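Sequence design from tokenized structure. All designs in this work follow the same two-part layout: the structure record, then the generated sequence. An example of the structure record is given first.
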């Protein structure tokens, strides 16, 4: 079996769909997963290969359903979502659990709530909310402990068919409520955050340096666009320029994706070769570069997918294994869905993997149809023609979505 990860991904996705369309408790799926895993081990020992594979598929399906049910199960009585319709001002305390999203006119913070003041009494709480500050500010950072007062609201849901469903969008990201404050002055920083050493000492300085270089040598609008090209940071692009990209069908170039990861690997490879390092060390440095870039690009799903694919491929090269792109992308999908099963319903996730699967399945067919010409001009023409075919295949891959 050359693509075991593909079969695992299919059954894991089946488990996610099963959990979202049935009302069975999580422990039922957990029990099935444990029993199926034990039975698979027994079948393996008894050399019942076919039965073992079937039971493993059942275990993977049950695991997908179990993890999905854990994320979408009914929240406890003290969860922040329980207070989102109270129509009362509350004082909320929590920790900023992601990088601040600073935009030209506002700032978004994702806050993990640990307590709130409700009806003159302090209540221990849990869950995530999205705090919107009606002004751009860099006063708060990752892992800061903050306190603020405002109305805790339910995110609005799309009422019309096909309309953007903000509530579903946030639920996929495990955010259950929203609060809006007019300015940063309404927020008290109780404790400065201590982010992970890797982010604090490497990722943040590199990201700040990239931003400073663009802002020093380019006008503000062009600097914002360049940050979008390089790391997918579109927060400072004006709505007018953003709409122009959207109208011309080129919005995808502002999203960090597999192409960006490929450029990073190619650039690092050229640089590392100058030092004539042993093959294994070159691969380790390339993996480190891919991981750093993924964090620079805020670990967007499209970047994580490409980064995992690149890392799996590089590990295979280190072990002298042949590359199987279909297996690699399946591993990437599994890694993302194991931690965030509800990402299956995220449009960006679907578009990213739809295009990638189409390219992996159909580009080799195009290459076989097109003979390899002799002569430099014809080779160049074939190269650009393959790029054109790749764009068409990627577009066709996302048509069903």
């Amino acid at each position: 079996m050359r693509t075991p990860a593909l079969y695992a991904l299919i059954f894991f996705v089946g488990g996610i769909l099963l959990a979202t369309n049935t009302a069975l408790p999580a422990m039922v799926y957990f029990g099935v997963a444990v029993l199926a895993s034990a039975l698979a081990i027994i079948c393996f020992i008894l050399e019942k290969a076919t039965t073992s594979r079937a039971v493993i598929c059942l275990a993977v399906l049950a695991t997908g359903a179990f993890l999905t049910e854990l994320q979408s199960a009914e929240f406890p009585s003290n969860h922040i979502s329980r207070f989102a319709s109270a129509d009362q001002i509350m004082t909320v305390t929590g920790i900023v659990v992601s990088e601040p999203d600073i935009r030209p006119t506002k700032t978004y913070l994702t806050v993990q709530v640990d307590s709130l003041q409700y009806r003159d009494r302090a209540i221990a709480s849990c869950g995530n909310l999205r705090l919107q500050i009606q002004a751009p500010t860099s006063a708060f950072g990752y892992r800061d402990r903050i306190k603020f007062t405002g109305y805790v609201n339910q995110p609005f849901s799309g009422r019309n068919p096909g309309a953007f469903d903000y509530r579903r969008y946030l639920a996929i990201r495990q955010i259950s409520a929203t609060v809006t404050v007019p300015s940063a002055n309404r927020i008290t920083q109780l404790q400065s955050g201590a982010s992970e050493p890797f982010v604090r000492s490497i990722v943040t300085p590199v990201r700040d340096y990239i931003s400073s270089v663009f802002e020093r040598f380019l006008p503000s609008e062009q600097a914002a666009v360049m940050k979008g090209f390089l790391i997918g940071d579109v927060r400072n692009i004006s709505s007018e320029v953003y709409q122009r990209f959207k109208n011309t069908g080129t919005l995808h170039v502002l999203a960090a994706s597999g192409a960006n990861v490929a450029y990073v690997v190619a650039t690092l490879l050229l640089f590392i070769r100058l030092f004539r390092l042993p093959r294994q060390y070159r691969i380790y440095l390339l993996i480190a570069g891919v991981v750093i870039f993924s964090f620079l690009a805020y670990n967007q799903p499209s970047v994580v997918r490409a980064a995992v694919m690149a890392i799996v491929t590089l590990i295979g090269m280190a072990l002298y294994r042949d590359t199987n792109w279909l297996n690699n992308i399946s591993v990437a999908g599994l890694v993302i869905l194991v931690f965030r099963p509800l990402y299956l319903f995220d449009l960006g996730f679907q578009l990213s993997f739809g295009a990638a699967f189409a390219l992996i399945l159909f580009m080799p067919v195009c290459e076989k149809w097109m003979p390899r010409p002799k002569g430099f001009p014809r080779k160049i023409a074939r190269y650009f023609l393959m790029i054109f075919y790749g764009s068409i295949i990627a577009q066709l891959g996302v048509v069903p979505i």
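The longest strand covers residues 107-118. We note this feature because it recurs in several other targets discussed in the main text.
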